[in-house]
Every structure is written in C-alpha cells, then in structure tokens.
C-alpha cells in the first residue's frame, strides 16, 4: 500500500504524457520541456511576421489595393488571427489537449502559406503589373477570383496562427508547478522569455525575410515562411517525451453560462418566494489546502473559499427548487468569478493594441516615403520593427535577471513588480509613443511641403529613423503589457480555464486591430462629412492628416489609462484575497 501511495504521489495529477500515460514528476515538465516550446515559437512567429509586417506593401503594390484598404485588410487579418486564439484556448481546455491543437494549427497555417506562395509565384494569379509613374493614378485592383485565393490563403494562416497562439503559451506555462515558489518564478520567467522568443523570430522576419521579399520576390518570402512552419512541427515533436500535457476538463463556456443562468434563475425565484432556502450547496470538488502531492492528510478538513466579490453569482449556489442542470458547485462559481474579474483589465488593454496596429500599417507607409538608407545600406520600410525587437531582446534578460530580483528585494514580495503594474507601464508607454508619432508625422509632412514633394514619388529628404522612435516606444509597451497580461490571465484563472484566459492576451490584440479598422473608417466618415476630403483617404499618404489621427489615438489612450487605473486599484488578486474570503469547510470523514 505504501508503495502504491508513493507511485501515486510521484505522478502529476491531471496531466498525461504524449502517449496518454500518467505524467511523472522529474521526468515530465520543467524548463527543458518549456525550451522546446520557446524554440518552436521563434520559428512560428518568424513564419507569421515575415509576411504580416510587410503585407500592407504587398497588397498595395502587387494586388493594387488603396493604402487605406490595404491597411484595413492587414488589421482585419491580424485581428482575426489573434481572435481565433480564443478558439484554440477553448478547444485546449475543453476537448483536445494543447499538444494536439498545436499540431493541427501548425498544419493549417502551412496549407495557407502554400496557397499564398503559389499565388505569388504564378503571374496569372495576380493582377497585371502597373508601373507607377504618378502615385495619384490608381491601378487595376485584383479581380474576384484571384482575391478569393488571396483571402483563402490569408485566413487559413489566420486560423493556424490563432490555434497556435491559443495553445502554445499555456502549454509552456503548464510545464511548471504553480504550487511551489520556484515553479511560479520559472513560469513568470517563461512568459518573459516567450516574448523574447517572439522577438527572435521577428528579428529574422523583418530583416532577412523582408529583404528577400523586397529584392528577390514575394514567392521567396512566402516560401521561407512555409518551410519555417513546416520545420517547427518536428522540433515540437522532439520534445514530446518531456512534456506534461494537461487533461481537458470539459467546456469552460458551458460552466460560465450555467453559473450565470443559475444566478439569474435563483435571483428571480428568491424575489418571488418569501421562504426561499438560501443554503449553499456543498457537493463538489474542493482542493485548496492539499499538500504538494495533491493528497489530504487523513482526518484533515478540505477548505474551499468563496470570495466576497461578485456576490451576485453566489446565488447560483442556492438550493431553491429548480432544474437539475442548474445545480452549481462552489468551484464552478469561483471559476466564473475568476474570468469575470479579469474582463475589465482585458478591456483596458485593447486601446494599447490599437496603437500597436499602426506599426503594421501607417508607420510602414510613412517610412516608405522617407530616406531609408543608413550609410550605403538601404533598409526596407517593413524592417523598421528591428529597432523595438533588438531593444526587447536586450531588455528581457535585464528585466528578468536584474529588475525583477531588485523589485522583489525592495517590495519584499515573491513577484516584485506585479502583473497589473507591468500592464500599467505598457499603457503609459503607448500614450507617449502616440504623442511622439504625431510630432514625427508633423515633421515629415513639413519636409514634404517645403520640398514640394507632396504629390511626387520621390523620396523625402528626411531619414526614416525618426519613425523608429515610435517603434521603440510601442515595442517596449508591448513587452510589458503582453508578458504581464499572459502571466496575469494564466495565474488568476482556475485550472480548467487557463488556456481560455491566457488567450485573452491575443484577443486583446485582435480587438485592438479591429478597433483600428473601425476608427479609420469612422474618422474618414466624420471628417469626410464636414471637410472636402477625409483625413485618411487618398492614394498618396502625404495627403493624409495622419498627425491628427495620431493625436486622437494619444487622447483616447490617456482616457483609457484612467479607466484602467479605476479597475486596477480595485482588483484583488485571487492568491492574496484571503482577508475577504469566507471559508466553507467540508470535513473529510
């Protein structure tokens, strides 16, 4: 019996290996397993960003969409890719393992890239070449059939990217034991180095691959992305023997709707009944005071806590007569509370990602009109992200090994800089970035006017390094906000919803890109109504009022930061809210 208990305690409860056997402590999980995931993310982000960062130029120069239409297509594509991370996270939590979702998604992205490569390689699948003598002359836009092929490839890539983003980060985070301080520290380091891996892939994408696309042809750029995502699959499989794979626990969406429905139903019943019974149901799974091996000492009480916030949801536990399918457990109520609590924080990060969307659209088009030479070397406009990427690659090790340990000593806490503080730093940097972007655009426009080149195709006599400042600031904002969001959402969610909650980091990006598209359309509609021409509508970006748009984003970002402060100051971390919890003890007989 002792031997059997020893074998049981040596297993990771709720985890399996890739062969569907119990995961073993010391053999599965840890930094070695997470390292495979970090390497895979380098390749995956290389494949994705190699095209996304330069896609706006491909659409405008080779598919002959207008600059604003190209910008909207890119933001919609990238927004959809990140929004689909929610689907990947949901399927990982509910039905499939994160391991399987990654393999399916990588294959899907590969198929989409094959379609795009074929179209870029065969001239008959693109619109006729249009030599641009004057930027004000419109070229023949891609026809319906060829556009269908283009969008089919793009959105297959988006589906694959979404599945990977929704499954790979939580799969990496699940390799660490969150019950120990060492495991939690390693998990936070993993999220920081996950951003580092994103940057490594981005560095290769916006330098080497973008140069290939601009100088050798887009078929080569798409081809490199196709080969890269294909190579990432066997590398991921090489780590199979080291992974601990979380067992899906059923649909978290079902739990959310069930608790909400039960709360509404019991609230309605209690208002219409003078003798409603309001005892809490205590027939559930409770695990808050278990030892590290997951076992409870004989005779000890299990304790499940019910937080004081969102008390309306506590009504779901009332034992008034009702349909059996509305019966909820304390764990289910807590799971729903954990998700609803983080939604205001999630909503506050969307504006930051709307600002980030400009780096893939208008900022690239700005740089394309400027002098992109550094000495004798010409830098492609889409390679501008190299500045924030390099900065992030330097900042991540410094942040993880210097700033975090120092903040832990100063604050005398395990985490040092809190997740909400990280996100707040990112929001402040985004405000500064948009102010700088507006000032730089004012300078660029002034140079165009003074040089008499507003309607010309000639390069403006101003270096594109001016635009790099907004890239560095927004890149830094992305580091703090993305790493903070992923760690925050993963930590605060319950075990059955971690993939879904972590996917909110990418959904925030998606909503930011969609918001960018909506703002562009809304600004054009309003300004076109009251002025002769809209701010952001012309065949030549020199005729745009882009500086006014950037000032608008700066103002909205400032208001959004005040909104964030309102919720962040009131947020109580799930792991530290013991003073505001009521304990319900169920004696283990």
TrEMBL record:
Q: Which terms are listed as keywords in the entry?
A: Membrane, Transmembrane, Transmembrane helix
One Gene Ontology cellular component: membrane
Taxonomic source organism: Forsythia ovata
What is the annotated localization of this protein?
Membrane
Key word Membrane present: yes
Gene3D superfamilies, per database record: MFS general substrate transporter like domains
Query: How does the protein's chain sit in the membrane according to the entry?
Result: Multi-pass membrane protein
Sequence similarity: Belongs to the major facilitator superfamily. Phosphate:H(+) symporter (TC 2.A.1.9) family. Belongs to the major facilitator superfamily. Proton-dependent oligopeptide transporter (POT/PTR) (TC 2.A.17) family.
- State the name under which the record lists this protein: Protein NRT1/PTR FAMILY 4.6
Transmembrane region positions? Answer: 29-50, 70-92, 99-122, 147-168, 189-212, 218-238, 339-362, 382-402, 423-440, 460-482, 503-526, 549-567
